[in-house]
Each structure stands twice: as C-alpha cells, then as structure tokens.
Amino acid sequence: MFQASRPNTHLLQGEDKATAEESKEKMEAKLSSLAKTLTPSSIQQLSYLAQRCNAVNLAEGFPDFPAPIHIKDAAVSAILADFNQYSHVQGTCDYVARKTKEMHGMNVDPLTDIVICCGQSEAFAATMFSIIDQGMRLYYLIRHTKRMMFVLGLLEEFLFLMGGGKWQVYVGLDPPQWTLNSDKLEKSFTEKTKALVLNSPHNPTGKVFNKDELEIIAGACQRRDVVAVTDEVYEHITFDNQSHISLASLPGMQRRTVITSSLSKTFSVTGWRIGWAIAPTCIASAVRNIHIRMTDCAPVPFQEAALAALRSPPAYFDRLRRDYESKRDCIFNLLAKVGFKMQFKPQEFVEELIKQAGVVAVPGAGFFHSKPSAYYASTRYIRFAFCKSEDTLAAASLKISRLVDASGNLKLFLTC
Ligand SMILES: Cc1ncc(COP(=O)(O)O)c(C=O)c1O
C-alpha cells in the first residue's frame, strides 16, 4: 500500500517546515489511486540495504560484467557520428527478422511486422494497450516479473476507470519443475479470454517450455481464438542443452502471436533499452502508434549498436550459454555446500558417480514418455540395474560407501 515518504524538510525550521509539510500533504492527495498503491520495488530496497551493508548483491537481475566490446565500439561510433536525433533504424528490424528466420524458421516482414521499443518492457506494455479492452480477460501462464505486474496494474486501473472488472487470470505451473497442467489451463479460459501471456525461457525458474507444452498452449489459443504474447528475453540463455522454441513458430501461431524480446540479457546491456515486438501487421502497427506516442523512439545510438549485436557470430551465443551454465553450476554448488537441498540432476549425478565412485547407473529420463506431466518424475530418478552377480553388487556397494559422510549421506557435487 501507499507509504507516504518522509517529508524532505529536515533542513527547514519553524514556519517554513510546517508550510512545506502542508504543501507536501496536499500534493500527495493529488496522486492517482494507482500511484497510491505503489511502493518502492522490494528488490531495489534490498539493493539499497546491500549497498549500505557493503553486501554482495545477488538480488538484482542485471549482469555486473562488461558488455561485449564489439557492441560497445559500435555504440561509441554511433555517438561520435552524431546519431543524436529521433530516429527509427530500419536495419535493426532487418536483423531481428533475419535472426527470427534463423532461430525459428519464421518469415517476418521487417518493414511492417517489427517495432523497436525501449526494451521488452515497453514492447510488452504497448502490446497490452494494443489488444486489451474492457470486459476482456488476460491469462497468465507462469508468474511474471514485477515490471509486467506494473503494466498490468496500470492497465487494470485504466480499464477499471472505463468500467471494466477483474480481468487477469493466473494459471500456476506445478512446482518443482513448473510443469504445465493442461486441465488447469483449459478450465481457466472463458468466452471473454482475449490473450495469453507466456514467458519462456522463464525468469526466475529457468524453465524452458518444451514442444509438448507449447503444443497444448497453441491448441488452446487456436480453439479459443486467443492472442498469445510471449516474453522471450532469455531466448539465448538456456541450460543443459535445452533449446528455446518460440510459441509463434508452431503451426498456425505466427498469425496470432506477439513476440517481445530485447538486447538486455543477451548482450548484458539492460540499460541500453533496446527491445522489440514482432507481431501480425495490424498489431505491429498499433504497437508502433502507441510506442511513438509514449517514447517516440528507442535510444538511437543503441539502435545503431544493435546492428552489431544482432550480427554477432554463433560462437558469441554459444559462449554466452556456456558462461551462464557455469555461473549456474557455481551458485548451485555453493548453495549445496551450505545445506540447501538442490534439485536432482540425474545426468550430472550419474557422471559424478562414475568419476568419484567408479559406479555406473543410468538417468531415469529415458524410461519416461515425454509428456509434460512425466517431466518432473523423469528428473527425479536414476536406475541401478541389479541383475548382477553378488560380487559385482558388493564391489559397487564398497565403492559407493566410500563416498558416504559421517551423517550417512552421499557426498557428491561438493566442489565449486
Ligand atoms: C522475464 C523478463 N522479461 C523482461 C525483462 C525486462 O526486459 P527489458 O530490459 O528488455 O525491458 C526482464 C528483466 O529482468 C525479465 O526478467
């Protein structure tokens, strides 16, 4: 809820102070009801606290390592070349279209179907304002980021003022693997549902929706004639060889899907504010009209630098994935070391068991169908075949028991 900030009047005294406080109260009363519901972001508050305590900040989701030099050079050149004025850099759209073709096999017209915005955040906000009217419902698959919540709050307020009712529906995914429950999805639709929002690859879980799950979502969107809006800012950052599939690339989906994404995460430039929406022509045109009225254009030197970014060779994207994977493993090991119970990773477990104990088992995944509902189970098991001689079983037992610690647990994964 709204928290009145402390009056910035500590330097004033007596009458001046009383007047300043009175005028501050008057101005606060003029705030919109939406503004009164907003509090400072909890992540930012934690970051301020971290700064005060000189703590290592693992709260805010921005990279603290440098952006690639080839794109920084391109941005510097654009500034030196005086790319200073409002402008739309068509070349960026051309490259977004080319990348979309390479990654997802989709043909997108860069002249009409792509809008460069100030980050995914603006692309998403403009998309929502383009497609949602009062009386319509929006569907959320999976939890969303704070910024999305703000946009939706804004939209909700706007629709409320126009006489609309409750309109957001959340379809929770099932932990711990965040699996999609197709019944839950089906039951959440109503005849008023207009759009479905999907964030994959997902922050913060890292979940990447697989083909089966996407087919379920695509089928539901098509049966109900619903628009899909995807947030794909992590499109290049997936783990354990999972590949990201865009919902838009499924048969029949491109014509009803808006993809939103950005440079922010892929090129470690969250402050450059370059993102885009890729949409059917009429929606792209609406998004463009809203974007132009809200911000006119994304920062032009960075639109220019985006060309260099999007032209990066495949090795750049491979390296990015590998780097993130090793950061993930490092935090994983660190947390395991201090007693967090970590999710079981059968493939790695089996590999470590071979290396450290000299015993081989197989991950259970190969024994499950690839249905979403089986995904969780398939990541929880490994199989030990016991159709072996007693000597073989005794040898395995001896080898494994050498790795058991004083409390009786197997010590694997304890090195960072
Ligand atoms: C899932 C997700 N989408 C979008 C964004 C924001 O992207 P952008 O910087 O392009 O606005 C974030 C930022 O943390 C995010 O985590």
UniProtKB/TrEMBL annotation:
Residues 164-347 form the Aminotransferase class I/classII large domain. InterPro entries: Aminotransferase_I/II_large, Kynurenine-oxoglutarate_AT, NHTrfase_class1_PyrdxlP-BS, PyrdxlP-dep_Trfase, PyrdxlP-dep_Trfase_major, PyrdxlP-dep_Trfase_small. GO terms for molecular function: kynurenine-oxoglutarate transaminase activity; pyridoxal phosphate binding. One of its GO terms (cellular component) is cytoplasm. Its cofactor is pyridoxal 5'-phosphate. The keyword Nuclease does not apply. Keywords: Aminotransferase, Pyridoxal phosphate, Transferase. Pfam families: Aminotran_1_2. Belongs to the class-I pyridoxal-phosphate-dependent aminotransferase family. This is Kynurenine--oxoglutarate transaminase 1. It comes from Sesamum angolense.
